[in-house]
Design a protein that fits this description.
Blueprint: E1 10-13, H1 23-38, E2 42-47, H2 59-69, E3 79-80, H3 85-97, E4 101-104, H4 108-114, E5 118-119, E6 122-123, E7 143-146, E8 152-157, E9 161-166, H5 167-170, E10 174-177, H6 185-195, E11 200-204, H7 211-221, E12 227-231, E13 233-235, H8 256-266, H9 278-288, E14 299-301
Parallel strand pairs: 1-2, 2-3, 11-12, 13-14
Antiparallel strand pairs: 4-7, 5-6, 7-10, 8-9
Helix pairs in contact: 1-8, 1-9, 3-6, 6-7
The chain binds zinc ion.
């Protein structure tokens, strides 16, 4: 269970199959691919399909075909989070045995009305159920929350440098398993990165504020903390992150060379030379690769 592998770079791209890839997700995929290949590392693909109501039938396969179309070939088998329930349950059981987690029977309404302030991710949970005795709990399925410490969690990000967060004051005890039975992203991503030996995480800055929670979980589960690099987000003309919700257009695969050149420019690699085939662009970029350095939460506006 405890993965102590530190030799050899292992990176990953972990999309949610909620729609087709767009320019923002292509940027993340290309950057994590180039960072892995530049370091002669392995590059894994993991489908984060933990939230069926948000998923779109066929999206996972469409994402994989698009990656191949752009020459972004991954190593090993694609991992699907929806098939890894036992791994997440084993991690939760370890935390249960150590009394680091507790069942929470609060409704969403209770959480909101009893909140002890607004945190980075909404209302900060009051801790109502942290002291509750099992006899007091009603006959329903609880969520499971982890107790968090009143201390700073700090890490150095390869893009945005020093980061720190106090989980008790800015986040509160957070959910690992939801009352509807679904696994929370924070637990699944930590278990998967450790189980897959991932030691370099390159992803978008929308996940920067989740990272201290993940580091805390890694520490509690005895996992090695990976290196993190959080890339600037591509936004539309309204300053919104490109996503399904902001109607990011699907990539036009007939334009793949132009799109790839554009992504390489966004990543600070400049103008790529003329090539006969798109795969040569990635080879060139692998040689040129340097992780972009930017200010915290910087954005790039694009009308693609
Ligand atoms: Zn509760």
């Amino acid at each position: 269970m405890n993965n102590t592998q530190t030799k050899g770079y292992v990176g990953r791209f972990a999309p949610s199959p909620t729609g087709k890839l767009h320019i923002g997700s292509l940027l993340t995929a290309v950057a994590s691919f180039l960072d892995a290949r530049h370091h002669q590392g392995r590059w894994l693909v993991r489908m984060e399909d933990l939230d069926p109501p948000r998923e779109v039938a066929g999206a996972a396969d469409a994402i994989l075909r698009t990656l191949e179309h752009f020459g972004l070939y991954w190593d090993g088998e694609v991992v699907y989070q929806s098939r890894r329930h036992d791994l997440y349950q084993a991690a939760l059981s370890r935390l249960q045995q150590n009394h680091q987690v507790y069942p929470c029977y609060c409704s969403r309404k209770t959480v909101l009305t009893e909140a002890r302030g607004q945190g980075i991710d909404g209302a900060i949970y009051s801790g109502h159920c942290a002291q509750a005795k099992p006899a007091e709990t009603p006959d329903k399925i609880p969520a499971w929350r982890i107790r968090v410490p009143d201390q700073m969690i700090a890490f150095t990000d390869a893009v945005v440098s020093g980061q720190q967060q106090n989980l008790a004051r800015q986040v509160g005890d957070f959910v690992l398993r939801r009352a509807d039975g679904f696994w929370a992203y924070q637990l699944a991503v930590v278990v998967d990165d450790a189980e897959q030996g991932v030691n370099h995480v390159v992803r978008g800055q929308d996940l920067l504020l989740s990272t201290p929670r993940q580091i805390y979980l890694q520490q509690q589960l005895g996992y090695t903390v990976p290196m993190y690099a959080h890339l600037p987000l591509l936004t539309n003309a309204l300053g919104q992150k490109w996503s399904k919700q902001t109607h990011a257009p699907a990539l036009n695969e007939a334009q793949r060379e132009a799109l790839l050149r554009q992504v390489l420019r966004y990543l600070g690699l400049g103008e790529a030379p003329a090539v006969d085939h798109v795969s040569e662009l990635l080879l060139w970029a692998t040689g040129q690769w340097q992780m972009p350095k930017t200010g915290c939460l910087s954005i790039i506006t694009t009308d693609v």
